[in-house]
Model the fold of this input.
Amino acid sequence: MNSDDLRYELTLLRDLGFTHLDIRQPAATPSATDDARSADNRQRGEAAELLAGLKAIAVVCEKCKLSKSRTQVVYGEGNPNADLMFIGEAPGRDEDLKGEPFVGRAGQLLTDIIKAMKLTRDDVYIANVVKCRPPENRNPEPDELEACHPYIQRQVEIIQPRVIVTLGRFALQSLTGKTYGISSARGQWLDYNGVKVMPTYHPAYLLRTPSAKKDVWADMKKVIAELGGESGT
Ligand code: URA
Ligand code: SF4
Done:
């Protein structure tokens, strides 16, 4: 491990709450060295390894109260070098039991959307801003969103997608740290640390409101165009 890699790992541990580590190097500030390291990681195909290292920390995480009620942590899955990342809210019952994101009814709808884009779940990366199921599927609370944020931040840094699609209000607000309203924000490109973000509705909302599917499809067409693929019509 060279010093850049070491600094990266130490910064990660600090962000995850290991407060006894004292990191005085300017590792938290993105630098030319960090950019070079990121490019290098990608070239060497190290994203999978970095994601696995972070997962090992996440699966035993007890940073917030959701650790007490979860069955298992739902870390995220997909292509470690994906151009496209979908970010949802928090696991539901099916995900909590299976340990995989978006495998229930809303997940089936997301899978259908991905297929309509002429992609598969293995082409993209799917994760949530909160990794453990809130009891009775209640909304995630501010302390939980804050405690879990370093994980999604690192996942994005490691994967370096070209486009992120946020699903629903909590994903958008937690990722960007801003309080957008979802119906006014959806369909408009935003930026997250240099990555283009397309906010859209959550598939669970589409299950209740099928008339909104056309809006999501309009948003996905913009994503397809940005990625330079076929329109999928
Ligand atoms: N809803 C989400 O936001 N994420 C999941 O993984 C499942 C349902
Ligand atoms: Fe840790 Fe996130 Fe689970 Fe809370 S929700 S225990 S921060 S992994």
The mean pLDDT is 90. Residues 134 and 141 are 9 Å apart (CA to CA). Residues 142-159 form the longest helix (18 residues). The pocket of uracil (ligand 1) is lined by residues 88-92, 95, 101-102, 104, 106-107, 128, 204 (CB under 6 Å).
